[in-house]
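Revision sheet: structure tokens.
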Amino acid sequence: MAKKERLVVIGNGMAGARFIEELVARGGADRFDILVFGEEPHGNYNRILLSGVLAGSHRPEDIYINPLSWYGRNGVKLLSGVKAGWIDRVSKSVYAPGGIAESYDKLVIATGSTPFVPPLAGLYEEEGGFKTGVFVFRTIDDCAEIISYAGAAGKAAVIGGGLLGLEAARGLLERGLEVHVVHINGHLMDAQLDPQAGDMLRNTLEGQGVNIHLDRLTAAVRGNGQVTGLAFKDGGALDCDMVVVAAGIRPNIDLARQAGLHVQHGIVIKDDLSCRNSSDIYAIGECAQHRGRVYGLVAPLWEQARILADRLTGQDPDANYSGSRISTKLKVMGVELAVMGERDPSQDSDELVHYSEPGRGVYKKLIIRDGRLAGAILLGDGPAIPGVLQAFDRGDLLPENRSELLFPSIAASRPLNVADLPASTQICNCNGVSKGNIIEAVQQGQRSLQGVCQATRAGTGCGSCKSGVQAIVEQAMKTCCGDGPSPAVGSAPVLAGCVQSPSPY
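Predicted:
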């Protein structure tokens, strides 16, 4: 047998751990000695579900994907709680404090991102740490600290009105706090939503009890040693007992920059996912920049992980990554939302179709180009989402009557046809489960929604995909069993883990 190569992975988060799973599934442990630097002292967990932990709908142990024991069982050495310190490209080694030195033949950097903390006066103590009562919301340890402190607090301020900030707000609201969201821009989730949708979301969240402060630039954290409030640049102030900073994320590229790799906003990679100036070093996930773009959603991260595993194991040595067509479906404090493609018309010939019903918090917007969907925003109307996502993912020609897409009840003769979806279609965004994964689970003996959820993790995140999962299970049963679904498919109880909770990723 040929001598194994040494593969080192820096990062055990959503991208790094998924790559290791994909590699092991392809027999990678027979081809490589695999070592992983994991900065956190845990196994791999689903960061998307941290909002559920904060809100109390999930226990911390419920969100682990691969516990520490998984690594040894699969031939992977995990250095848990060890942060890689520097890379020496000449000696092809990764070093860490404490005299740790690990050589590599191939290196994968999956360092993810770090919270962006704005330069606020009074944020830090003289010793350098956050003032008591100030937190970021990124890791499971952050979550535990917030929960502990919130137990004695009455009023919380969240800096940031993006997805992560709103999820932090939801969790604190569920724990009985008075919650204020402070956002620098004029409408919520401005990276995903247009102003009209953002305003409608604001009205819905205020109806749930969240206090929203827009166009407010936080200048300082008040309090002597402990948080007592925020001060704003316009002279205003807000009293509070604790502050959660959720003002965005930044690619974690410090290690790559130290190593002399080509970095811009992220680590610049080619279509084979190798770094531009080092063919034996690869980068995937939120730290990577491909064709000028950095992705912060899980679907592109997992697509990169799969392609790199195909290349390195030889399963598909010519596999390339050409970029991802972004669509995401999630829940924001219980409000269903789907965003895909372009947010606004950009060409003179673009067709704009929209529908707004403020009283119900429903907003639908389509950007149509050459008869196909170039982008869409759907807020507050779950039944319309699957058909629009299918049309976008497949690039279908749209019906001349656009209302058939916006109002599924009108298009009763055009239901979502799961049989037409390609196997690669991602059904569960939270856990990266494709239609093909679900069909495979049925073929391997799973005969119920519950069994498929357990086998694939589909539906165990925000839960919004369960109707699609069940439709695919029923289709697969007809194909592989030659008849309709068994009663177990239609009547299977919902898993305790298949709960409706939002996704902050």
